[in-house]
Design brief:
By secondary structure, the chain is of the alpha/beta class. It is built from 15 helices and 13 strands. Strands 3-2-1-4-5-6-7 form a seven-stranded parallel beta sheet, with helices on both faces. Helix 2 crosses helix 3 (93-107). The chain is elongated.
């Protein structure tokens, strides 16, 4: 198949998933064309099956905000014609699904009917998409896509609750590439570089936005380290980093926390992690939790959004109500205080993560693509 993929080319979950999907499809022999404003950060190689086409927006003084929608739609039209694409798979409702719809209408003038698959990832629905300014356009884009998928049942429920959706919505979960994990983390679990003998390592990875509740991460760790000798690794950059740093200093634990900023070595960090903390306000799926589990790391998370679909209570970790730092700290200590128990949770997490392996999820996308191309919808 000849597949066009549109996504945000950044570190966000939707961009990572879209890029990993494209790479996996290319490895299966499909032609994959990324059509984005910049080369996706995870697209660190190109081959004869993998292509990148940049969307260029002219900096014209007339426009206070540059018309990316129009530039993207035009580039999609050009790419479909030039490379004879079979379908467009757009990740995120706005602006990508909206631009794809415009491109589809323009292509009809050339007697080309290009199918559109739209994958919803979370904030495009629950935060941005439901805003009154954008809601009509998001609803329109979803209803005029040929196939709509979400990355969790929870997100599907939110989509149907927030919008008047007239189409069937399919759930195709996010995935993990275990071969990549083994290749990147092999022989690199050097714990003594970050923690002393007998110390446990707790980790949090995010964009440090308020929705991630980074202050709860600090508070949970503060309680845990009072009972279990431990270090906390924080990976990511974002608006709440300074607040987290100030709270750590207030609590007198700044010397036990490592702020690593953005990192391309997440898997190496997770390899030496004992427990992953994810006390988010909401998560459409919880890709960070899945990456941790695939690295044999149990998860302490909230019970919101798609997290209960990934993290199984009492098996791969524990789930608590949003903001209940006491309960999360208590459960964290319960896992960490007994080595046999910790090992059991680690093995359970690793085993459970395999239900989201790329070998199981990729065929679902391929089957859906073939159906769309065959039926014309």
């Amino acid at each position: 198949m000849n597949i066009g993929i549109v996504c945000y080319p950044t570190y966000g979950g939707s961009g990572v998933v879209a890029t990993e999907l494209g790479i996996a499809l290319a490895q299966k022999g499909h032609q994959v064309h990324f059509i984005t404003s910049h080369q996706p950060v995870k697209l660190n190689f190109l081959n004869h099956n993998l292509h990148f086409h940049e969307v260029f927006v002219e900096n014209y003084p007339l426009f206070h905000y540059q018309p990316y929608n129009l530039a993207l739609a035009s580039k999609l039209v050009e790419s479909v014609q030039k490379y004879n694409l079979d379908l467009l798979h757009v990740h995120y409702a706005i602006p990508h699904a909206f631009a794809a719809y415009m491109a589809k209408q323009m292509l009809k003038d050339f007697d080309i009917n290009i199918p559109i698959v739209t994958t919803l990832h979370g904030t495009d629905i629950t935060l941005v998409g439901s805003h009154p300014v954008y809601k009509p356009a998001v609803e329109f884009s979803i209803n005029h896509s040929d196939v709509v998928t979400t990355v969790s049942q929870s997100l599907k429920n939110d989509t149907l609750r927030l919008f008047n959706i007239k189409k069937e919505v399919e759930v195709i979960y996010n995935f993990i590439d275990f071969d990549k994990i083994e290749n990147e983390s092999n022989d690199t679990c050097l714990r003594d570089t970050l923690a002393g003998d007998g110390e446990k390592i707790l980790t949090h990875v995010s964009n440090l936005r308020p929705v991630k509740r980074i202050l709860d991460v600090i508070s949970i760790f503060h309680k845990v380290q009072q009972k279990i000798p431990s270090k906390l690794i924080l990976v990511g950059e974002g608006p709440d980093k300074e607040k987290a740093d100030l709270l750590a200093k207030e609590l007198g634990i700044e010397d036990r926390i490592l702020f690593l900023g953005k990192s391309d070595e997440i898997l190496k960090i997770l390899c030496l992690t004992d427990l992953f903390l994810l006390p988010s306000e909401t998560e459409s799926f919880g890709l960070a939790a899945l990456e941790a589990m695939a690295s044999k790391t149990p998860v302490i998370s909230t019970n919101t959004g798609g997290l209960p679909e990934v993290n199984t209570q009492g098996v791969t970790g524990f789930l608590s109500d949003v903001g209940d730092v006491d309960d999360m700290a208590e459960k964290a200590v319960f896992i960490l205080e007994n080595e046999e128990r910790l090992l059991e949770f680690k093995n359970n997490a690793y085993k459970a993560a395999h239900q989201f392996s790329i070998e199981k999820i990729l065929p679902k996308y391929e089957e859906m693509y073939k159906r769309v191309i065959k039926n014309g919808f």
